[in-house]
Amino acid sequence: AYDRPSVEVVDFATWTLSVVQGNDPPWNCFPSTHCIACTISSLTLMKYNRKVGWWVLVSTVFICASTMFTKQHFALDVVAGVMLGAAIFYLVRRVVFHSWLGNRLVRLLGSNW
Description:
This protein is 72% helix and 0% strand. The chain is elongated. The longest helix is centred in the last third of the chain and has 23 residues, at 75-97. α2 (33-48) packs antiparallel against α3 (50-69) and α2 (33-48) packs across α4. The protein is an all-alpha fold.
């Protein structure tokens, strides 16, 4: 669990942070699912559209940093999320493109997939 300091609501930004922290339990930390999803998205887009992929990769870095700045995650949660996201991406690619099931899916969905 992450002990979050109380937020004094004085403007829109602190109100938004209080809403986020109020709806996200402090024990839902390891690994960061925000970082997992962003990593998978950025690696996928880097593979299929480099221009958009770079933009999403930069966004991923900012999202990972913001989870720590807003006291939602520890650095270890972020590192584990990025590593798990990368592992899932490469595992899925390996299964889809280098297995019997993957070959059947590619034939079924077409070569552009």
